[in-house]
C-alpha cells in the first residue's frame, strides 16, 4: 500500500522506513503552512526549513543538576574509562532508492543462518558486507564509547552478551548483523568528570521526546494512509 500524507503521495522507497518518510512529509507540509518553505523548493531548502520549524515550535527543557546526578547514579556503567568492546559486523547498506523491505528480509535470513552456524560469520562478511571491514571478515577491532553512531553503540555496549546479537541493529547506514567477541569493563569515572556529558545526553533524550510528541500532534491532525505514526519516537531527518 502506498503512503500518503494529507492526500500527498510520499516516495517512501527513498527512506529507510515508511514511518520516517511520512514524518518528513508531515514536517515539510507544516513548514509550507507557516511560510518557511516555498512550494517548489528543492531538497536542500526543505531540510533547512524543517530545521527552522523544529527550532521554532519544539521546546526542549534543560536538565537540572539534580536530574543529571540521579541519571549518573542510576547508570554508572555508562561512565567508565577504558571500557572497550571487540566486535564484528556485516552491513546491509540502505541508501535512497533502495528497496528497504527486501534488504531487511535478506539481512534477517542471514542473521538466522549465522545464529545457527556462527562459524560462517567471516565468510559471509567477506561475501556480503557493504562495509570495508568485510575484507577483514567484519572485524571492527576495539571500540570505545563515542566511536560509533549511537544506535550501534547502544547495541554493543549495553548488556553483557557475547557472540552474535539476536536481532538486527538498525542505524542510519542500514542493517547490521553484530557479533561481540570480548568486553573490557574499564574503570568508573566520578560524576564531576562526566557532568557535562551527562547533561548533553539528558538534553538529547529530552529533545527526542519533545520531537516525538510534536510529530504525534501533527500526525493526529493529519490524514495518513499506508502508515501508522502513533509510536513515532524521533522525527530527525536523515
Number of self-contained structural domains? 2
- In this structure, how is the largest beta sheet organized? 5 strands, antiparallel
Structural class by SSE content: alpha+beta
The pLDDT mean sits at 88
Measured between the Cα atoms of the first and last residue, the distance is 23 Å
Number of helices: 7
Counting DSSP E segments of at least 2 residues, the number of strands comes to: 10
CATH topology of the largest domain: Chitinase A, domain 3
Strand percentage lies at: 15-25%
N-to-C order of helices and strands: EEHHHEEHHEHEEEEHE
Give the overall silhouette.
flat
Level of helix content?
40-55%
Q: What ranges have pLDDT less than 50 throughout 5 or more consecutive residues? A: 231-238
Cα-atom radius of gyration: 20 Å
Q: Which keywords apply here?
A:
single chain, five-stranded antiparallel sheet, alpha+beta, Chitinase A, domain 3, 18% strand, three-stranded antiparallel sheet, 238 residues
What does this molecule look like?
This protein is of the alpha+beta class. It folds into 2 domains: 4-62 and 194-225, no CATH class; 80-188, Chitinase A, domain 3. 44% of the residues lie in helices and 18% in strands. The chain is built from 7 helices and 10 strands. It has helices at 18-33, 43-57, 65-74, 100-116, 121-128, 150-157, 191-220; strands at 4-5, 8-9, 80-81, 84-93, 139-144, 163-164, 169-171, 174-184, 187-188, 224-225. The strands form 3 sheets. Strands 4, 5, 6, 7 and 8 form a 5-stranded antiparallel sheet that branches. A 3-stranded antiparallel sheet has the order 2-1-10, covered by helices on one side. A two-stranded antiparallel ribbon has the order 3-9. Helix 1 (18-33) packs across helix 2. The longest helix has 30 residues, at 191-220. It is flat and about 55 Å long.
